[in-house]
Design brief:
Layout (H helix, E strand, L loop, with lengths): L2 E4 L4 E5 L3 E8 L3 E9 L8 H6 L33 E4 L10 E9 L16 E8 L5 E9 L5 E10 L5 E13 L5 E8 L2 E9 L3 E6 L12 E5 L10 E7 L4 E7 L5 E7 L6 E3 L4 E3 L2 E7 L2 H17 L12 E3 L1 H4 L5 H13 L4 E4 L27 H11 L3 E6 L3 E2 L4 H5 L19 E2 L5 H18 L3 E4 L21 H19 L4 E4 L9 H6 L2 E3 L6 H11 L8 E6 L12 H8 L3 E5 L7 H23 L1 E6 L6 E7 L5 E8 L9 E3 L9 E4 L5 E3 H6 L2 E3 L8 E9 L1
Parallel strand pairs: 21-22, 21-30, 22-23, 23-26, 26-27, 27-28, 28-29, 29-30
Antiparallel strand pairs: 1-2, 2-3, 3-4, 5-10, 6-7, 7-8, 8-9, 9-19, 9-20, 10-17, 10-18, 11-12, 11-14, 13-16, 14-15, 15-20, 16-17, 24-25, 31-32, 32-33, 33-38, 34-37, 35-36, 35-38
Length: 723
């Protein structure tokens, strides 16, 4: 039984074969967080004993030391002096709550969340704990789902107004865990456009630390993820406690270390600029948070998140299938193309073994630069005299699939859509509009806007008979105001936008179940489990430089599997950095994601095209292993001049190891790289050299990586078990 309830001790024990998560009701009222970590049979110790001693101030409502107790659903106001999960402004203006146990239920499976993406969980079991504040009638349902096969607990909170007067939620987070004083460091993923998800590790100190977004998107700057552990945690050793969120909008991920060294880790919708009115009888559903425990360091944590994503979050035809090798015309032509140029590129792509041709920005309206036409999803006949269908028929005729770029959430002031509906964008009437990339954001909280997007995108997809869609989003939100909401509800806009987005994504992706969708936000500006639920891959970054990509993909792999990371070989010198790296290196790094090209193949010399043809054959042969194998980070680009990672097949009979040097250094010895995840008892043959090594040898002594001759050299090994 994954969830055991002991009425005698009032203890809920959530467990699988490896982890335990224990909640205890104290005084029959408060759900106290008693334990999370390696599987235990039970915890007998009395949590009160430990915390009572520390109680000094003595002004709690029920004479319980709420300020020092680790809690499951802390609220401010009745004794706890830390920031809590929930803040509800009541009719009298006060916001104290005294949330006490009301009832509970243990369910087989895991209910889906209404209007929000969530992980499937037919195999899971779910505890629903109901708490209630008698005074206001505010009730909450805390849900915890535990899976037999992954060490992740999915949590969410639903708030219900059972009272007789309206209340306003000013904060409603998804999860809170009060961790005892065993955590000394915090790892997050921070960055910017073109350098997303860089690993940052810092010591935990008293006070608040964490990451957040207020941009209306999960953002380039911060990923909804944080991992706590001791300073001795490595990629392979040590206990890690990580939180992530299935949400694509503004979020808050915070750790508060109190005076007793207890670390309160919380994650959820960003409370800044948020409020939500609940009339009597209304409820509010928070997004889902994932709590991951690993006893095997950061690599162990990542594999749990990868399995969560692959088995339970991504959906549809492509969730576990091989992905078409694509060429995208963006860096090949930008806006300067016509049908002939595209067909020339497509023919060349076909010749080297590419499967899918993607037409990026600039095919609609009169968009010759980035200052017009978003919203007008009509074919630009100047560039495509035969329309999308004419082009698509010819691409299909070449034996390629056809893909198309959209940026459906945006509107250009220079567009017919804007001229017809100037109020459809997010704006404050009477104030100047703040454009970014010459565009404004459509107000997805409005039904008519959502319907327009669904219809316009669907019509263009049908017209173009498309096999693939790149769903882009190139700016963040400000000047927040919706003409569809009254003044008391404007702070609902951010979340209503995301709910509107999810409704659109659900409609479009289910209308086109055979289409492969890739999400994008100026590169990796919305790389989160929420988007992964609808679209199995996402463009990882606009930075296609192989050396920068090592860092970006290394950081991204902390949470997301290889099969989600769009990664392409682009031209040199690189368009974002001006750096030149060898083709073999660009390809080896792109094989750490969903593989493709983003360059003008027609300009490459024959030798490079021949090499690309060989590379494509290799990728196709290795794709199941590269995309869906067990992934291990071996060497961190954040710690030195080298990056290494590997994928191992489920039966541990095959592996691909990639090693990339940074700028070459003189007078360096060849490197020994210990591998992971192999079978120690097996012998492995390196396909290229024919040399045979023991699995034990490879995981202890390591594989010898040749010295770098030249900058940014990559080496790849394909190891196959010998019978
Ligand atoms: C941003 C994306 O990340 C790029 O790949 C490209 O699609 C441009 N937008 C087009 O405007």
């Amino acid at each position: 039984m994954p969830i055991l309830y002991s009425p005698e001790n009032q203890v809920f024990h959530l467990q699988n074969d490896r982890i335990s998560y224990i909640i205890r009701l104290v005084a029959g009222k408060y759900p106290i967080h008693q334990y999370w970590g390696k599987k235990v049979r039970a915890i007998h110790a009395d949590v009160m004993e430990r915390c009572c001693n520390q109680q000094e101030e003595g002004f709690t409502l029920h004479e319980l030391p709420l300020d020092t107790l680790p809690q499951e659903c802390p609220v401010f106001g009745c004794g706890d002096m830390r920031q809590g999960m929930l803040e509800v402004r009541q009719a009298d203006g006060s916001s104290a709550l005294d949330l006490c146990y009301d009832s509970h239920e243990i369910l087989k499976g895991k209910p889906a969340l209404k209007g929000l993406p969530s992980a499937r969980g037919e195999e899971a079991e779910t505890l629903v704990l109901r708490l209630r504040d008698e005074h206001s009638g505010v009730a909450v349902e805390l849900s915890y789902s535990v899976y037999p096969d992954i060490d992740v607990i999915a949590r969410n909170m639903r708030v219900v107004n059972d009272g007789e007067q309206a209340v306003v939620l000013e904060r409603a987070l998804s999860a809170c865990v009060d961790l005892e004083n065993t955590h000394t460091q915090l790892t997050t993923l921070s960055g910017a456009w073109a350098r997303e998800r860089q690993m940052v590790t810092r010591p935990l100190v008293p006070g608040h630390q964490g990451v957040e977004s207020v941009r209306g998107a999960s953002s380039h700057q911060a990923c909804p993820f944080m991992a706590l552990g001791k300073s001795t945690v490595t990629e392979d050793e040590g206990e890690v406690y990580a939180l992530s969120l299935c949400y694509s909008g503004s979020f808050w991920a915070d750790v508060f270390v109190d005076c007793n060294d207890m670390a309160r880790a919380q994650i959820g919708i960003q409370p800044f600029q948020f409020s939500w009115e609940l009339k009597p009888g209304d409820s509010f559903q928070t997004p889902e948070a994932y709590l991951c425990y690993s006893a095997n360091g950061l690599n162990g944590m990542s594999r749990e998140f990868h399995h969560l994503c692959g088995r339970y979050i991504t959906r549809g035809k492509y969730a576990h299938a091989s992905r078409p090798l694509l060429v995208n015309n963006w860096e090949a032509t930008y806006f300067d193309f016509n049908e002939d140029k595209l067909l020339e590129l497509a023919a060349c792509a076909k010749d080297v073994g590419i499967d899918l041709f993607v037409l990026d920005d600039g095919w609609f309206g009169h968009r010759d630069v980035d200052n017009s036409s978003l919203g007008d999803w009509v074919d630009d006949r100047r560039k495509l005299p035969n329309g999308l269908r004419g082009l698509s028929d010819k691409i299909h005729g070449l034996g390629l699939k056809f893909g198309l770029w959209f940026e459906p959430e945006m509107i250009s002031p220079d567009s017919d859509l804007y001229r017809a509906h100037p109020d459809w964008c997010i704006h404050i009437p009477g104030r100047m509009q703040v454009e970014s990339r010459h565009q404004l954001v459509l107000d997805l909280s409005r039904k008519e806007v959502r319907e327009y997007i669904i219809d316009a995108v669907s019509a263009a997809m049908e017209r173009g008979n498309v096999d693939y869609v790149k769903w882009d989003m190139n700016r963040n939100m400000n000047m927040l105001h919706s003409d569809g909401l009254d003044s008391a509800h404007q702070k609902e806009l951010n979340h209503r936008y995301i709910l509107g987005l999810y409704e659109i994504l659900e409609a479009v992706t289910s209308r086109f179940p055979d289409v492969l969708f890739e999400s994008c936000a100026g590169g990796g500006g919305r790389f989160d489990f929420g988007m992964m639920h609808y679209m199995p891959q996402a463009w990882c970054s606009d930075d296609t430089d192989a050396f920068m990509r090592c860092r970006i993909q290394y950081g991204t792999s902390m949470v997301f599997p290889v099969s989600t990371m769009g990664a392409h070989v682009s031209a040199v010198p690189n368009h974002q950095m001006g750096r030149s790296t060898p083709l073999a290196t660009r390809a080896a790094v792109a094989m750490g994601g969903t593989y493709g090209y983003e360059l003008d193949l027609t300009r490459l010399p024959k030798e490079e095209l021949d090499e690309i043809r060989r590379l494509n054959e290799k990728v196709k042969a290795l794709q199941p292993l590269l995309l869906y194998g067990e992934f291990y980070r071996l060497c961190s680009p954040f710690e030195g001049n080298k990056t290494a990672f590997m994928s191992v097949s489920e039966d541990r009979c095959e592996a691909v190891v990639t090693h990339v040097y940074g700028p070459a250094e003189p007078n360096r010895q060849p490197v020994l790289l210990p591998l992971r995840g192999l079978d120690a008892e097996k012998e492995y043959r390196d396909v290229e050299s024919g040399r045979v090594y023991g699995g034990d040898e490879l995981m202890t002594h390591g594989l010898t990586i040749p010295r770098a001759w030249g900058d940014y050299m990559a080496t790849q090994f394909h190891l196959v078990a010998v019978d």
